[in-house]
Amino acid sequence: MFLLSAEQFSETYGPVMTLYMGWQQTVVLVGYDAVKEALVDQADDFTGRMPIPFLFKATKGYGLAISNGERWRQLQRFTLTTLRDFGMGCKGMEEGIQEVSEHLRVHIRTFKGAFSEL
């Protein structure tokens, strides 16, 4: 539900938005280009993360989306290296990955919230 709303908001406000969750300011990135620019081109500006206790406990502080500082830099380097090893940056591979991810998104949407019943 949130992702659909973020996509809809991005059509009006652009791919980089500020969202306030209570008092906490959050930057929302929508789309490959916005995420790539944030994580690659402006990586140092995007190292801070809001602490989310559930996610921190579930991941033990590891994970690109919730880590901070030096741990984030290490995970970001590892993630980019691994993605490049799998072909990120190769035009043909990127198109294939985007095609497969679109099929996956369409398939996930067919569940229409059925995961909450599992």
From the N-terminal CA to the C-terminal CA, the straight-line distance is: 18 Å
Specify Rg, calculated over alpha carbons: 16 Å
- N-to-C series of helices and strands: HEEHHHH
* Uncertain parts: none
Number of strands: 2
Estimate the mean pLDDT confidence. Answer: 75
Number of helices: 5
What are its keywords?
118 residues; mainly alpha; two-stranded antiparallel sheet; 2 strands; 10% strand; globular
What this model shows, in words?
The structure is a single chain. This protein has a two-stranded antiparallel sheet. It starts with a helix and ends in a 9-residue tail after the last helix. The chain has 5 helices and 2 strands. It has about 120 residues and is mainly alpha-helical. β1 (about 15-20) and β2 (about 25-30) form a beta hairpin. It is about 55% helix and about 10% strand.
